[in-house]
Structure formats: C-alpha cells, structure tokens
C-alpha cells in the first residue's frame, strides 16, 4: 500500500515541477561573466528566425542604481523609447553616446525607480519606439520580481545600507 501511495505522490510532484518549469521567463543574463550582475527577460516570439528582443537589468557598479539595457539584432538602438508596463508608461532615453559593456545592446540613460517597481509587479512590458514591432516587442514579466531583486541585492551596498534602503522604499507605498 505504501509503494503505490509513494509513487502517486512522486508523480504529482514531478508534474507540478513540469507545469511551473516554463514560468521562468526572467533568467540570469546570457552574456559571459554577467550571470551574477544582470538578469534578462526576452520576447517569446521572433519576427524572423534568429531575431531576438530582450531587456536586461544590470548592476553597473556596486552601490549604484540598476541600469536598463535593450538588446536586439540590427542597427544600434538609440533614441527615446516608451516602456509600457501593464497600463503605466515610462519614457526612457537610449543615447548613442553611451558605450554599452554588453554586446548588441544599448544602455538607457537612466531607469526611473517607478519603472523598475512596475516591472517587478507587472505582468508584461512592451517597448515602443524601436524597429521591433508588436507583438514581437512584448516581454512577460513573470518571475521578474525575484530575478530583479536578486540583482538589486547584490548591487546594493553593505548590509546596513541595504536594510535602510529597503525600509524607506517600503514606506513610500504606505
């Protein structure tokens, strides 16, 4: 009696693992040497074979705010773009003068903290103002909170600074 019950329990647990395995759309960055300091979310569909569209959140320097990078094939990405997280929109500038340490990507001039908070809480983000058109410019934000907060945690300063920064961030929502 125990063996069938144990095999049934094991089977249910493995099916639950398979059902949630596709839910990890935000992962460590695929750039060499960036796995601990950057995470990326990529569009599921590509307009042409070999195309991609990804957003990368990266810690450029410990103690500094996180940076946003946009990665897509083709010409350099620069200019003003609009990030739309669910129903909220944020304007971001990708200047041509900023040199990106990541290949085939452009760094945003600044990432508003409200946009970062929306990305952690939202369900999807789309980007307007690029050569990537809808629906290929839409990225799921499923599991983004955990991934982004992991990079935030490693990027923030020593423990006392992280502690007070998190408390003040929580108080803004009250």
Descriptive labels:
alpha+beta, 4 helices, disordered N terminus, 174 residues, four-stranded antiparallel beta sheet, five-stranded antiparallel beta sheet
Structural domain tally? 1
Radius of gyration: 19 Å
Number of DSSP E strands: 9
Question: What's the helical proportion of residues?
Answer: 25-40%
Q: Count up the helices.
A: 4
For the termini, the CA-CA separation is: 54 Å
Low-confidence stretches: 1-24
Q: Hey, roughly how much beta strand do the residues contain?
A: 15-25%
Q: For the largest sheet, list the strands in their spatial order.
A: 1-2-3-4-7
The chain-level structural class is alpha+beta
SSE string, helices as H and strands as E: HEEEEEEEHEEHH
The major sheet is characterized as: 5 strands, antiparallel
Overall body shape? globular
Report on this structure.
It is a single chain. This protein has one domain (24-172). 32% of the residues lie in helices and 25% in strands. It has 4 helices and 9 strands; from the N terminus they run H-E-E-E-E-E-E-E-H-E-E-H-H. The protein has helices spanning 2-21, 113-121, 144-155, 159-172; strands at residues 26-28, 38-42, 54-58, 67-71, 79-85, 88-94, 105-107, 124-128, 138-140. A 5-stranded antiparallel beta sheet has the order 1-2-3-4-7, with helices on one face. A 4-stranded antiparallel beta sheet has the order 6-5-8-9. Mean pLDDT is 79; it is low at 1-24.
């Amino acid at each position: 009696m125990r063996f069938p019950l144990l095999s049934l329990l094991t089977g249910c647990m493995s099916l639950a693992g398979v059902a949630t395995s596709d839910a990890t759309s935000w992962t460590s960055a695929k750039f060499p040497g960036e796995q601990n300091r950057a995470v990326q979310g990529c569009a599921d569909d590509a307009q042409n074979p070999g195309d991609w569209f990804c957003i990368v959140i990266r810690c450029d320097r410990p103690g500094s705010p996180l940076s946003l990078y946009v990665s897509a094939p083709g010409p350099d990405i620069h200019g003003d773009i609009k990030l739309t997280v669910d129903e909220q929109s944020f304007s971001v500038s990708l200047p041509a003068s900023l040199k990106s340490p990541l290949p085939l990507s452009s760094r945003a001039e600044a990432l508003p903290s409200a946009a970062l908070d929306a990305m952690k809480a939202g369900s999807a983000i789309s980007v307007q103002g690029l050569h990537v058109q809808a629906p290929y410019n839409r990225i799921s934000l499923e599991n983004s909170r955990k991934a982004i907060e992991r990079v935030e945690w490693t990027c923030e300063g020593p423990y006392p600074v992280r502690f007070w920064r998190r408390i003040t961030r929580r108080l803004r929502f009250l």
